[in-house]
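Cross-posting from the modeling subforum.

Setting up a comparison between two proteins and wanted a second pair of eyes on the formatting. Protein 1 (sequence, then structure tokens):
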Amino acid sequence: MRILFITATRIGDAVLSTGLLDHLIRTWPQAKIVVACGPVAEGVFARMPNRAWTILLTKRRLRLHWLELWREVGLERWDMVVDLRGSAFSWLVRAKRRVVMRGGRQPGPRLGHLGALFGLDPPPLPVAWFNAADRSRAALLLAADGQGGEGRWIGLGPTANWDRKVWPAERFVAFFEALVAPGQPLEGARAVILGGPGPQEAAMAAPVLAALGDRAVSLMGSVSLPEAAAVLARCALFVGNDSGLMHLSAAAGTPTLGLFGPSRVGEYAPSGRRTATAIAPGSPALDSMAGLTLDQALVAAQGLLTQGLPA
């Protein structure tokens, strides 16, 4: 069976689509799947089972990226085309079955919309694919100073692709200090700071790194997405702004707290086995993170940490 799977340009949406891919792989274990995605999301699928190859959809003027995709796949015959972009492209290739997501923004959780394409309720949770080499790399990165240890790290994601999604840096620092204080469940834990490449995200993370000093390890822009997933899987907790990294953490099975402004949490809350959100009050039109207090985030984190622990 041959499947063409057209998914997102952004990391977060791409991660959310992995649950559907996992469902397809389990349903048709002999299938060969070609993934078409945006360049920044390529790493999400790098370790995916049954992946034949990945096609990078780099946006072009006049939508010429669709023409480039057709040149690669248009003459093939597909058993199934799954199009999460809601484009007309899926109707221009030969396919026995087409599953096309409706275009435009829809109310309700994004994950539910994805599951509904195949009548899956509840929808399949996202997964994070990484291999033994990624696990070894993660272990090395977190043990390079001789102090690392599985379960004794708190992952922090103080960046986002938009500054209005970003919780103030000083609150990230105070949050970490409170979690690792004497008598707390994560007493003595250290921080691993993750984020994307580039000066904008580096500037967002810089105050947190400066305040935490040698209690933090920076992996800003220095690891692949599979390596980041392996690092996150070793963390006792991840706390971060609404971002692709937050979704990757939840997919890796890490207890994940997503920090949100007053909009879009209903659509993009983290989806995983152990997740929670802390939401700033206020108007969705303003969408400010300034109203999200330290106490709100700590209460949400403590509730997340106690899930599954013996009474």
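Protein 2 (same layout):
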Amino acid sequence: MSEHNMPTITAVRQDAIEVSDFVYAATGARVRRLTMPDGEHWFPATDVCAELGHTNPRKAVADHVHEGGISRLETVTSRYGLSIPAGRGWRRDLNMVNLQGLIMLVNGCTKPECQPFKQWVAEVIETVQREGSYSLPVSEIATATSNGATAYAMPDQVIDLITRLEERNLRLDEEFAAGQKVSAQAQERLMQTHVNLVQTQVGLAQSMARIADALEALVRAQGMPLSESGRESETPPTRPPDMNAILAQWRRRIPEGSDVWPVALYLLPEMLQNGDYKMSIDYLAVKVGMTAQEASSCLRVLRQAGCISQLGFTQNGNPVHALILE
């Protein structure tokens, strides 16, 4: 077989350092990656720039990455006859950078977190200039483990940097969890406040109902009320809506613990007292501790559940809502 007819064999490159750890040490984050059949790695330029604090990815790439370090996703995949990866964010025109381009973006970054990695890169270059080559210590050279998996080399500088990053992320996770706990406790206290308010309103409504019953009994004891024509009134006196009954209906329609309940528990006594609710969405949001968008969404859920209905708008443009009584 002649040299021209011999099949082309692409050798798969073995990374000296596991690429995910390498990129993590360089950028401080786990960045999306495409690895080609020959072992070349490519990363979305927008992902890398976002983690490094470059506010203008296009300018950052133009300023720091040479032509060989960047390519379009479609160009990269077509070299190997591959299709565009499925999923959101993978577009044909997406700019990708290889490892050289990624390192160039890191070198152009001013974040203090990138300084240890940049110092290691400078050390590698200085060693090559002085000694003609750079190699990892023997104890760090990649070897095959007993189970057949590959153990990658890891310079001490990269190990230390990754360790600090992981400790920082663990601390951030703990702070986030603590913040979530405080937020949940605050939400629980707010809910309990609304429950107490509703219970107070329910007690007031029940007291008013008992007074009305007592007055009705007193009037009947002295004789039935007459209409203007002198005949016995056929229309019984109107009794106020039962708040407990309304709450029971709402509980069958709205799951317990739903985000809608703070709005529901605030609106119910307001509507029972005033007949409707005409305040603005912003005012409602302040009262229940939500954003205007969240409060508007809660009103929509209450309408869809058949708890309230929108009657129209005030002259100021505020929506007018009223209870749906069954």
